[in-house]
Design brief:
Number of strands: 0
Distance between the termini: 63 Å
Low-confidence stretches: none
Largest sheet: none
Structural class: mainly alpha
Order of helices and strands: HHH
Shape: elongated
Mean pLDDT: 83
Helix content: 40-55%
Number of helices: 3
Strand content: under 5%
C-alpha cells in the first residue's frame, strides 16, 4: 500500500475493534508518542466502586480539614 486511497480502503474493511486500535496508533503518531500501552478503558470499572460514606459528607469533611 502506498497511496492514501489504498490505506483508507483497507481501513474500511477492518472490524470495529481493529479500527479503534488503528485510530489509537495514528493519534499516538500525530502526538509524537510511542504506542506502547493502550489507554485504559475506564468504562470497564463502571459500577465497581463501593463508598463507605455519602460523597457529600466526605467532601465536607475534607474541606473542614483544609480550613
Amino acid at each position: 500500500m502506498s497511496s492514501l486511497a489504498e490505506i483508507e480502503a483497507a481501513a474500511e474493511a477492518l472490524p470495529l475493534d481493529q479500527k479503534r486500535k488503528l485510530l489509537e496508533f495514528l493519534i499516538s503518531q500525530v502526538n509524537g508518542e510511542r504506542a506502547t500501552t493502550p489507554p485504559t478503558d475506564l468504562a470497564k470499572f463502571a459500577g465497581t466502586v463501593r463508598l463507605s460514606e455519602d460523597p457529600l459528607v466526605w467532601q465536607q469533611r475534607m474541606r473542614g480539614e483544609w480550613g
